[in-house]
Amino acid sequence: MNIEHSVNAFEKAQNLIPGGVNSPVRAFKSVGGIPRFIQSGEGAYLIDVDGNRYVDYVQSWGPLIFGHRDESIENAVIEAVKHGLSFGAPTEAESELAELIIDIYDSIEKIRFVSSGTEAVMSAIRLARGFTGRDDIVKFTGCYHGHSDALLVQAGSGAVTFGTPSSPGVPADFTKHTLLAEYNNIESVKKCFQDSPGIACVIIEPIAGNMGLVPATKDFLAELRKLCDKHGALLIFDEVMSGFRACLHGAESITGTKPDLVTLGKVIGGGMPVGAFGGRRDIMAHLSPEGGVYQAGTLSGNPVAMAAGLASIRKIKANARLYGVLEERAKRLMEGFAKAAAKHAIPLQTDVRGSMFGFFFNCSHVANFADALKSDTARFARFHAAMLDEGFYFACSQFETGFIATAITDTMIEETITAADRIFGEIK
Ligand code: HOZ
Predict the structure, then answer these.
(1) Over 60: is that where the pLDDT of 84 sits?
(2) Rounded mean pLDDT of 196-221?
(3) What was the pLDDT predicted at 342?
(4) Short-list 207, 292, 293, 316, CA closest to 252
(5) Most buried residue, 119, 176, 213, 310, by most Cβ within 10 Å?
(6) What separation in Å is there between the alpha carbon of 25 and the centre of ligand 1?
(7) Where are the beta strands (DSSP E) in 73-225?
(8) Alpha carbon distance 43, 139 (integer Å)
(9) Do the beta carbons of residue 71 and residue 412 sit within 8 Å?
(10) What is the pLDDT of residues 233-277, one digit of tens each?
(11) Residues 237, 364: one domain?
């Protein structure tokens, strides 16, 4: 495969931008090789600057549930652009998107839009602290909630990919209120509540996607709910990644546990920069200007981003069978991988939630961060490089999730399995 233009573009970018990228995981550091510089996207495909085409199982890390250049989202954006890029004043589109999401998510009675997942979570935590009058928070090792100071502790995603799950530059004073628990281990949460009488909230990715795909069990989430209620702490579901990806009505609808606050992002922006946090009306009433908890943003509720989000969520809502179809395809892909891996005696753990899929080169079931870290990252790197060479674009880290878009067909999935089978034979 000729990647000369990507090689040159990467060299240039490295002189201008730290690591040549504007978000660390994109640099391919943990898998080696050259990140592809992208010219365009088309449905299921990414096309790089050398003209190579890849079936894209990243889909911009989640937002593009209909694939690249979905016609209705593209048209909505073009139409919105004609009216102006930003007003810094309210628009009706904000209420329309709010209404749509509130109607779909049981636990969201009021919502506020921001510009990224990081911002959504940071603001939700501040709100939980302001509401409860407490300072401490509980997060789980391996969960990633964006890159704000208090949450960059034992974090997943790029932080673990580069072996710095707790970042330099974050003062210890800023993280002293962040208590750590182990995912899917309720005893570790009980210990946090024993250690601190002042826990404002427990934040969790109910379907963790930033240490690879590791869903929480129903029992664990139910116990978490009980503990929060017993101690007067809020439960926050971080669904920036899983929201509108795993299913229509949120993790609460498949796990049976209802959070007090939910954070969203990715799909609700249809590819534009959008985040949101919402939840119980009485809690949201503490947010400025109704209440005293301050949060603001010049580009919050941006009209072009709202238009993309509206088109995306409306199309999802109109297509009731969407998640069933995507889950079938994700399962077919993972079952194909599991079968091929077994044939070559390669230990592989797979899982699927709606359009999200994950696989670990790991001998045992992965239930938490410690389990995920036992995965064979060197084998993952070889797999990643070889698949890329064959025209299949997977997330460039063992600790990320894969995504199916409607544009990815059954035939593409069969071709992916065939390539993976061949490659497993080479990397066993
Ligand atoms: N944090 C994102 C994946 N979990 C990566 C975002 C990006 O690099 O674009």
Answers:
(1) yes
(2) 97
(3) 98
(4) 207
(5) 213
(6) 6
(7) 110-114, 136-140, 178-181, 199-204, 207-208, 214-215
(8) 36
(9) no
(10) 999 999 999 999 999 999 999 999 999 999 999 999 999 999 999
(11) no
What contacts 381, CB < 8 A, 6 or more positions away? Answer: 30, 31, 32
Q: Is 30 helix (H, G, I), strand (E, B) or coil?
A: coil
H helix and E strand count, the chain: 15, 16
Task: Please report, for the domain that includes residue 300, its CATH number.
Answer: 3.40.640.10
End position of a domain, from candidates 289, 318, 347: 318
Region class of 312: left (phi > 0), else alpha (psi between -120 and 50), else beta: alpha
Q: Which residues are catalytic?
A: 144, 238, 266
Q: Could you tell me which of 77, 32, 20, 56 has the C-alpha nearest to residue 270?
A: 77
Q: Which residue has the tokens 């079952």?
A: 335
Residues 103, 108: Cα–Cα separation, whole Å: 8
Count how many domains the chain has.
2
Q: State whether 241 and 112 are in the same domain.
A: yes
Q: Give residue 220's domain range.
A: 71-318
Identify the residue whose tokens are 């911002």: 119
Please work out whether the CB of residue 25 comes within 6 Å of at least one atom of ligand 1.
Answer: yes
DSSP 8-state code for residue 249:
S
Q: What is the pTM of this model?
A: 0.96
Q: Whose CA is nearest to atom 9 of ligand 1?
A: 23
Cα-based distances in Å from 44 to 54, 268, 415 = 8, 19, 13
* Statement to judge: residues 286 and 341 lie in one domain: no
CB atoms inside a 10 Å sphere around CB 83: 12
Secondary structure letter of residue 381 according to DSSP: H
Q: 239 with 382, same domain?
A: no
Instruction: Work out which ligand 1 atom sits closest to the CA atom of 401.
Output: 4
CA 14 to chain centre: 26
Q: How far apart are CA 319 and CA 337, in angstroms?
A: 28
Tokens, residue 315: 């199309």
For position 306, what pLDDT does the model report?
A: 98
Q: Cβ distance 285 to 326 under 8 Å?
A: no
How many angstroms separate the CA atoms of 200 and 190, rounded?
A: 14
Tokens describing residue 368: 């938490």
Distance 279 CA to ligand 1 centre (A): 25
Q: Look at the block and give the residue holding tokens 């999200």.
A: 356
Q: Reply yes or no on whether the pLDDT at 158 is more than 70.
A: no
171 shares its domain with 263: yes
Ligand 1 within 6 A of 29 CB?
Answer: no
| Domain stop point among 300, 318, 336 | 318
Those residues whose C-beta lies under 8 Å from the C-beta of residue 90, and which sit 6 or more positions away, are: 301
Written as one letter, the residue type at 101 is: I
